[in-house]
Specification:
single chain; 443 residues; mainly beta; Porin
Length: 443
């Protein structure tokens, strides 16, 4: 059964879940490229995998719930709860060399898992992002008044916030010493809002707003929801030397294409006082399938290597409603999303739990490359290259670890009047594990 220590730690995770979403909604603290499509694609499977390039379809670890492959959930021993938060600093540079510095904090994911039968059947629940829109673009110019003959300065702010979230629930089953299977249901939902705020200023008297020009706020709010299924397989290949704990594992997952039901509302007004322009529009948004594969090799429980790939054919994306980069029967800048990653973990102590403290710290490093699912212009593809690293610290509570992850990456280019993003991220994760549902025995 759960102990007071476990309850306090779970309470901390719930507090993070309540407080940090507000921090994630501070408009203008993310990449300008998140204005395209449904927002920037967000991938998160576990804090361990985040520090190893983000891959791990074939990675099974008793200390973590691997969200990338439900087949790995069959190996659970302890009931686990975990929560992760992210802090990012971003430098955006345009073709003229102008640079903006932005920062934000956000909740990454909350996990809960427990075994129905130890190392045989395991359940998993999770909440994590699917896409995120969070940007602010500001333009200004002089406008000649047609009647008075003077000029007025106007400023337009294009901003976006929100995104799609996903709730995951599924089961992993041990079938054979060499095979595990898993099935997961994914509820994808969220609201994406884009706004255009126009304000006017007197060029001779900064800060003065002329009375003959009214500021306006035009907003587009789109609500989406839908369900899909994800299936996973995990193959364990026996090695020739049966006296060691070396293991080679192959993993593959498949997520079905799905249809999101969308409702869009247009409003116009000032500040929060806005009026609906017309009747809400309804339509379907068709998300493509997703296929991921991976290989992991563990040597003597000390060294772990992972290599992964992910493919999503977003070129088949269809929508009854327009999005930046896509209009029905018109513009279509959507491309196939591709991601490749590799990572390494070194745990000096292996399974020796009596080893010195820093021998029980896990050291991780990785890298990833990805091509975005929507291009900012027809002339260039949007690509990202990043390196990752992390440390995992044991705590005073057995089965509980504190992870610190770092990411440094570059996205985009300053060619074709675009923007290059250079970003640094730090992630903190608390991963709690205890043995529950023990039957008490009396002598």
């Amino acid at each position: 059964m759960n102990t007071p220590a476990f309850q306090r730690l779970v309470g901390l995770l719930l507090l993070l879940g309540l407080v940090l979403p507000a921090a994630a909604q501070q408009t203008g603290e993310g990449s300008v490229y998140s204005r395209f499509g449904l927002g920037s694609r967000i991938l998160y499977a576990s804090s361990q995998q985040q520090a190893m390039g983000g891959g791990g379809v074939a990675l099974s670890n008793l200390n973590y719930l691997n969200l990338s492959n439900p087949a790995t959930w069959s190996a659970q021993v302890l009931t686990r709860a975990s929560g992760s938060v992210l802090f990012q600093r971003l430098w955006a540079t345009d073709a003229s060399g102008n640079t903006s510095r932005l920062g934000f904090g956000a909740l990454q994911a909350v996990h809960l898992s427990f075994p129905l039968r130890t190392r045989r059947i395991g359940l998993g629940l999770a909440f994590r992002p699917y896409t995120r829109a969070n940007y602010l673009v500001r333009t200004s110019a002089l406008l000649a008044h047609p009647d008075l003959g003077d000029t007025i300065r106007y400023q337009i702010d294009y901003a976006g916030e929100g995104g799609l979230q996903q709730l995951n629930a599924g089961v992993g089953v041990y079938v054979h010493p060499q095979l595990s299977v898993g099935l997961r249901a994914d509820l994808i939902f969220g609201i994406i809002e884009h706004t255009q705020r126009t304000r006017f200023f007197d060029p001779d008297l900064p800060g003065l707003i002329p009375t003959e020009y009214a500021p306006t706020l035009f907003a587009t709010s789109t609500r989406l929801a839908g369900v899909r299924a994800t299936a996973g397989l995990l193959f364990r290949l026996p090695l020739s030397d049966q006296q060691t704990s070396d293991a080679l594992t192959l993993g593959v997952t498949f997520s079905t294409p799905t249809t999101l039901r969308a409702t869009r509302v247009y409003t116009l007004g000032e500040s929060l006082d806005r009026d609906t322009l017309k009747t809400a529009l309804h339509g379907d948004v068709y998300l493509p399938l997703s296929v991921a594969w991976g290989v992991s090799y563990q040597q003597d429980n000390r060294w772990t290597f992972v290599l992964d790939g992910l493919y999503e054919p977003w070129s088949r994306f269809r929508s009854d409603l327009p999005f930046a980069g896509y209009t029905p029967n018109g513009e279509n800048l959507f491309k196939d999303f591709v991601r490749l990653s590799a990572g390494l973990e070194y745990l000096p102590a292996g399974t020796d739990y009596s080893a010195p403290y820093f021998h029980q710290v896990a050291y991780r490093i990785g890298l990833y490359w990805e091509r975005a699912y929507v291009d900012p212009s027809p002339e260039v593809s949007l690509r990202t290259l990043a390196v990752t690293a992390g440390l995992s610290f044991p705590t005073l509570f057995p089965g509980t670890r504190l992870d610190v992850n770092l990411t440094a990456g570059m996205r985009g280019t300053t060619a074709y009047n675009l923007v290059r993003d250079v970003y640094y991220r730090i992630g903190l994760s608390l991963n709690v594990g205890e043995r529950w549902f023990l039957q008490r025995r009396f002598n």
